[in-house]
Write a structure and sequence with these properties.
Layout (H helix, E strand, L loop, with lengths): L2 H15 L8 H17 L4 H21 L5
């Protein structure tokens, strides 16, 4: 496994969205889903990259929800 490349790609993914996630709309979430899927496929969906992607997307979601709480 090429851990260095996986971490580099996750870092690039993180940097691309972290400052914009507070303003995420449906289009941005669709981009995140598409990009995360491509990233997983790049590394043959190995468990390690899948866990990194899941953690990153969960963090984006946590930040987004803290700014835009769900209203009942």
């Amino acid at each position: 496994m090429d851990y260095f490349s996986m971490y580099r790609d996750i870092w690039t993914f993180h940097k691309k969205y972290i400052d914009k996630i507070k303003f995420a709309d449906d289009k941005m979430w669709a981009e995140i889903v598409t990009e995360s899927s491509k990233l997983g496929k790049k590394y043959d969906n190995c468990n390690f990259i899948r866990a990194l992607i899941a953690n990153e997307v969960n963090e984006f979601e946590k930040i987004s929800k803290s700014v835009h709480p769900i209203q009942d």
